[in-house]
Amino acid sequence: MTIRASALVRTYGSVKALDGLDLEVAEGTVLGLLGPNGAGKTTTVRVLTTLLKPDSGSAEVAGVDVLRQPGRVRELIGVSGQYAAVDEYLTGRENLELVGNLYHLGRRRARERAGELLAQFRLEDAGDRPVKTYSGGMRRRLDLAGALVARPKVLFLDEPTTGLDPRSRNDMWQVIAELVADGATVLLTTQYLEEADRLADLIVVVDQGRVIARGTADELKAQVGGEVIELVVGSADQVPVATEVLERVGRGAVTTDPHTRKLSVSVEGSSTGAAALVEALTALGERQVDVLDVAVRRPTLDDVFLTLTGHVAEESRAGSPQKEVVA
């Protein structure tokens, strides 16, 4: 395994950011690390990239012990975090050349590599502008480019596409896929199931510092049913009746939004969504419930997390001591 973590524990005061977390990432693969805000994803990345020491447990990257040889680990990895770690007073090109010099590439090779990456990330036209003039998406692309200057074989990408527009996100996905095709190993933290679905060979779900599920995207979706029924009823007083009906045709808890009068429930198997919807609409019609809108869709990340953890993936834990240091 290129990345291995065993029984990692890290506390902040009375809060356990990591509570015996285990991970393994095979060479040349992408592990998607999913979890809500405060689950421990970023703390995991910080431990594995030598930025934070665990209270207990062990970890290795490319066969190198993270605690005993942190300097060697840093030589082998590239890191792109949630917030672009770039100097806004330097140009994009100068930022990349600076990283190249820190990796001892030599002035000429650092300059060449900066030009290659500016082209790869569609930043050529902005390469000689100060980064403070860049948009948020441009900064994120420059940050990932910086992580690739030394062509590392192990990459840690902590929510690299958060805040990007659809085109930039797709571009980033393409770059990551190409890196893996060339043999890179990637640990990717994300709140987007579609991102993990597209990129990850294996997904690990964490919550409260513990691994609570492992599998492919399809396997995780199967845990909440093959499809989800959604409907909107005509008035607030019809929500309880609609909830009762959906509880009969679906599996698990019915999610309701009292403000929009929208209800949703998972159903078993990918082929039963239409049949369950017909059954629900028939029962609702018999009970004179007005249905304004209906849909059958595949499960989303929120559905997975609602089933696994009881809350959605984007939910913040207000007041948690982890809020400033983990995601």
Automatic annotation (TrEMBL):
It is a peripheral membrane protein. GO terms for molecular function: ATP binding. It comes from the Bacteria. The keyword Transferase does not apply. Belongs to the ABC transporter superfamily. Drug exporter-1 (DrugE1) (TC 3.A.1.105) family. This is ATP-binding cassette domain-containing protein. InterPro entries: AAA+_ATPase (IPR003593), ABC_transporter-like_ATP-bd (IPR003439), ABC_transporter-like_CS (IPR017871), ABC_transporter_ATP-binding (IPR050763), DrrA (IPR005894), DrrA1/2-like_C (IPR025302), P-loop_NTPase (IPR027417). It comes from Spongisporangium articulatum. Residues 3-233 form the ABC transporter domain.
